[in-house]
Amino acid sequence: MSLVLATDDAGAPEIFASLQGEGPSTGRPVAFVRLSRCNLACTWCDTAYTWRFEGDNRPHRDDTVYDRKANQVALSPADAAEQIAALGQDRLVITGGEPLLQGGKLAEMLEHLPDMTVEIETNGTVKAPPRLDVRIDQYNVSPKLSHSGNPAELALVAERLDDYATDSRAFFKFVIASPEDVSEVLALRDRYRLRPGHVFLMAEGTDSRTLRARQEWLAPLCLEHGFRMSDRMHIHLYGDTRGT
């Protein structure tokens, strides 16, 4: 079996080098690989081309539907690893979609990249198989709040969040669209006893103007509650584009 990847604007696998734009590793030079498919459907998702294909009627704010054949490409784990290694980076960020849906094949890919430090970005609903888990250095967990449009029973899986909350490799990144969203984060922090310093709040937005406007009220909320604030640096540098 192959890995199923998202595509860049030219139809090639979305494997690229850039600076990490979010979370605890912001500003680090990294290699990225973006996988296709997701088990959730956020109404504001900025990578809906990884899941909202023809026939998928889950709501999204711009109602765009993508052609699956034009937005997915299959690679063997070995071929994906070769393309990643060619980028010359020592740190890899695996993102999606929800990459842990392809955990077994990711483990196989990483066996070809034994010297890379690995971050994986996940919505926190899927468990990594042991063969993959041993290769992960950092989990960037982004549980979805109610404004995402996902039912809580799908988006907030207690067993998974319990596991991540007790894993020192896990950092939590919550997307915030309005000040009221922070009350949900506080409840989750208390319920799962999330580690101090491991919780980030990040404004929702796909353009610099929106991000800056929301950060004006988000910054004092982070200060009040002891959360770290994450920017979306890649949006300021490149806009809302693939392969960046």
Overview of the structural elements:
This protein has 244 residues and is α/β, with parallel strands linked by helices. The chain is 30% helix and 20% strand. The chain is built from nine helices and ten strands. The strands form two sheets. Strands 2-3-5-6-7-8-9-10 form an eight-stranded mixed β-sheet. It has a two-stranded antiparallel ribbon with strand order 1-4. Helix 2 packs across helix 3. The model has no long low-confidence stretch (mean pLDDT 98).
In total, how many beta strands? 10
Average residue pLDDT: 98
Q: What are the low-pLDDT stretches, counting only 5+ consecutive residues below 50? A: none
Helix content: 25-40%
How far do the termini sit from each other? Answer: 27 Å
Structural class: alpha/beta
Major sheet summary line: 8 strands, mixed
Backbone CA Rg: 17 Å
* Overall 3D shape: globular
The ordered string of helix (H) and strand (E) elements is: EEEHEHEHEHEHHEHEHEH
Strand content: 15-25%
Strand order of the largest sheet: 2-3-5-6-7-8-9-10
What's the number of helices? 9
